[in-house]
Amino acid sequence: MDKKTEEFYIRLREELNNTSTWPGEYLFKFIVPTDPKKVEQVENAFDNIGAVIQTNKSKTGKYTSVSINVMMESPESVVEKYIEVSNIEGIISL
Question: Which InterPro entries is this protein grouped with (predicted)?
């Protein structure tokens, strides 16, 4: 992980710690190229933890947005999920 990415996650942890109560619900939002395997990879990262997942294709069908509402234990667990899915090719975290 490069220094800029590491600094981003440090700031995210601090912000989540200061603005939310933990454990608490968190809404993850991602955009991935419309490829069933890539969408499935995102969904699998949140499998078996009670996540509510919604997907929506773009007008052109080129991209799919994935919204995931799930109960997370701490800011650290949120950051760990972002890092886990960051290796999916073409994913954009919002």
Answer: UPF0250_YbeD-like, YbeD-like_sf
Long-range contact set of residues 78-82: C-beta below 8 Å, sequence gap at least 24: 78/12, 78/16, 78/26, 78/28, 79/9, 79/12, 79/13, 81/28, 81/45, 81/46, 82/9, 82/12, 82/28
pLDDT at 38: 95
pLDDT in tens, 3-32: 988 999 999 999 999 999 999 999 999 999
Percentages helix, strand, coil for the chain (3-state, rounded to 5) are: 40, 30, 30
SS3 state at 30: strand
Q: Domains of the chain, with CATH numbers?
A: 3-93 (3.30.70.260)
Query: How many Å is the Cα radius of gyration of the chain?
Result: 14
